Amino acid sequence: MKVVNFLATAKIAEFLDLHQFSDETGVDFEPDRFPGMAYKISVPKVCVLLFRSGKSVITGAKTVEDIEIALAIVHEKLKSLKHDVYENYIYDIGNVVVTHNLGQELNLANLTLRLDFTKTEWEPEQFPGLIYNIDRDGLNSVALVFSSGKCVITGNSTIEDAELATKLLTEDILKATE
After folding, report:
1. Alpha-carbon span 141 to 164, nearest angstrom
2. In 33, 50, 52, 109, which residue has its Cα 20 to 30 A from 9's Cα atom?
3. Are strands 130-134 and 120-121 parallel, antiparallel or unpaired?
4. Rounded to whole angstroms, how far apart are CA atoms 36 and 90?
5. Taking a C-beta distance cutoff of 8 angstroms, is the pair 121, 131 a contact?
6. Three-class secondary structure of residue 28 per DSSP
7. Distance between CA atoms of residues 178 and 169, nearest Å
8. Rounded to an integer, what is the distance from CA 11 to the centroid of its chain?
9. Where is the domain boundary, 70, 89, 108?
10. What pLDDT is attached to residue 112?
């Protein structure tokens, strides 16, 4: 299992003047096209979407530390430009996306017949992967399973949930291919 993306949210201010921040930093802000500002950070390679409400969405982080560093960079930049930001803020991880390789080629047509049909969706003319819902043991994850044996698992709120989803997916697919 490999973590490919964390998505987190944080409220860092009561209100952000994104027009002013755009003028100060040169970061594009076009509220007619999108209500948020995409503040891109190169190290770590993360994008922080800032909204007038003071809320932010962090995407592209590969680790929890990446989230913390990105938020600290944005917070410090806003503070240095005299924006009224909270002294302390809390972030919540909303989604952990992982990839996993089952190590074998899969016959997706066969899998759709052998897995619980209420948890699978496969329309090869629409999308090349099988969509499999992992909704047990407290999880509500979704796996995209490809014939190469590679999978993308999303909908996890922690790394532990992602590990459990990966384990359950592997068990279900191995049982279905016996």
Report:
1. 10
2. 33
3. antiparallel
4. 20
5. yes
6. coil
7. 14
8. 18
9. 89
10. 93
Contact status, residue 11 vs residue 68, Cβ threshold 8 Å: no
Task: Give the domain CATH number at 32.
Answer: 3.30.310.10
Last residue of a domain, one of 59, 89, 119: 89
> Which residues form the domain of 104?
95-176
| Interacting residues of 113 by C-beta distance below 8 A, sequence separation 6+ | none
Q: What is the pLDDT along the chain (178 residues), one digit of tens a residue?
A: 999 999 999 999 999 999 999 999 999 999 999 999 999 999 999 999 999 999 999 999 999 999 999 999 999 999 999 999 999 999 999 999 999 999 999 999 999 999 999 999 999 999 999 999 999 888 999 999 999 999 999 999 999 999 999 999 999 999 998 8
CA–CA distance, 169 with 156 (Å, rounded to integer): 13
Q: What does the DSSP assignment read for 61-108?
A: ESSHHHHHHHHHHHHHHHHHTT----SS--EEEEEEEEEEE-SS---H
